[in-house]
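Reading is simple: each integer encodes one residue's backbone shape. The lines below illustrate:
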Amino acid sequence: MTTLNETHDPELKSWVTSANKAGCDFPIQNLPFGRFRRTGIEDGWRIGVAIGDQVLDLRAAGLVDNDDMNTVMAASPEARQALRRELSDGLREGSTQRPAWTRALVPQNECEYSVPCRIGDYTDFYTSVHHATTVGKQFRPDNPLLPNYKWVPIGYHGRASSIGVSGGTFKRPRGQTRAPDAQAPSLGPSKRLDYELELGWFVACGNEQGEPIEIGNAEAHLFGVTLFNDWSARDIQGWEYQPLGPFLSKNFASTVSPWMVTMEALAPFRAAFERPADDPQPLPYLDSDANRARGAFSISLEVLVQTAKMREAGEAPVRLSATNTSRAAYWTPAQLVAHHTVNGCNLQAGDLLGSGTLSGPEPSEAGSLMELTGSGKSPVTLPNGEVRSFLEDGDTLILRGWCEADGAIRIGLGECSGTVAAS
């Protein structure tokens, strides 16, 4: 597990002055990675690190030889940590790199972004027991939480090709649904389109096929975390999910934020992994003293919506819900890696592990409209009087995340937004 070092010093300041502002998502203690290019210039994606309101072009700064983000991710933990130290040294006040690196800075508002790396495979987990229980009650009122849930990190393999970056628009999906009073299904646009508040954990160096990753070494195989929205068509899902689980209800679109906040940057925000005393404790391959002591992370999350009508009126997005991973997640990232590979599955640099919908124990912490509105039975009334049971065309959904702790500088995960277009 990564530990605190000089790059986390709360007294550090950057010569990029915007990084020193209170509440900034990207202070020098963060240094997240992504891929960018100047807006309107079709010259390929560059590897960048966010600092304040700027992006540091790593190749222009002489820090990498090419713009293959997956190669950077596949490097050894020691090499990744050395790169973080070099970035921290070069961006801090008084650095001799300032004249040269100033020329390698690009304002973020002059950039466009891609998904932060090549995503080879995508697995979505189901790590919130509160989400699993609430949704389970809607599908199986008498048996909401299946008996395996508290023993095994549940997951399914998703579709990597339809993952897009924040700021995009996607079409409302079509598929088969069956109305409760209908004898046969029909094909049409989803009427119960939903969002899912998730985190995406990106794999760094992989493992050989047939060689499981032990939990004590699992975090060395993770590069960092992003915000992630796994859009879901609940009516399509309800018709197709048995016996094999989600298919067309999930694979039409997912959205990821452009910045990967590294495991090193998360070190000040670790938390203990704790289970209720009467819950099953993890099997040995999912358990370690270190994971119990500090294998979890405290990441605050919120969901906001801006309807087309709000946008036309110049009204800001409004919050739908908020939670924290320490309240929402039943499994740690290390446990996801250990379980994913226990059968010998080989992970590769750039693979994405979705957390699944992160919902806390209170209704106000729901990570989806399906939970927030009781499957549409209790619609949400927005401040402008509009009502939502599920998402409508023109709605923009926004996820935000940040980390705060005593003795540490706040860091942010940026923003993950997407807009629904008509089918």
